[in-house]
Write a structure and sequence with these properties.
about 130 residues; alpha+beta; Alpha-D-Glucose-1,6-Bisphosphate, Chain A, domain 4; 7-stranded antiparallel beta sheet; 7 strands
Amino acid sequence: MMARFIIRSALDVQEAVRRIVTAEEHRVPFTTVKRDGRRIVATTTVGPIRFDDTMVIADVDVREDHARGTIIKEGPVLLGTIRFAVTATEGGCVVGWDQNIRGGRWSILNPLLRAVMFAGYRISLGALLR
């Protein structure tokens, strides 16, 4: 499930990358985020349904005016790779986001999952990068 999008932010490159890789300002309803080194676990709970989304910050290269990074989704529900690039602009930065994510054991849900993940990442990244 490929999804690509671009977000413009008033943040500088370093702050945008910091927010992406630490998820400290992550504010998504029903989701809590815990970080342990390079590993991030986002736990979503809706009524009796709960699932953990485990991610590892695999590679990040930050320069003064640009950055690139890779995040690996390790499951158990979501698997795949996210790549992002951040480029400085006169008024802040532009973040390019490219995700290839699939459902782990529930591949039949991939079409629905794609729509939810695209919207979810767009909304959460937009809020994170404000």
